[in-house]
Amino acid sequence: MHARVSRYSGDAELLRAGFEAVGTELEQLQGFAQALFLADATASRAMSITLWDSEEAMAASAERAHRMRTRATEPASATIDSVESYEVVLTVAPGAP
Question: What dihedral angle (degrees, nearest 10) is formed by the CA atoms of 83, 85, 90, 96?
Fold first, then answer.
């Protein structure tokens, strides 16, 4: 599994609305597994973490993901501070083997 982590600066509530607006499109991308959207309203910042079945799926989604990030941040006049890719090397969850 692989993850793309994006960091944003701007109004957290408006960013939330932007993330919600692109959720359905994100779900339709080949190899998409899950997304987490995190916000800190006090510090006017947010983060998105998208999980992908493979590095290839994550790479194939890069251009479309960029367009979705841009659409999600424009209404909030937010900035995209960084976009990074990672391999998920460990997950921990209650009851997981």
Answer: 70
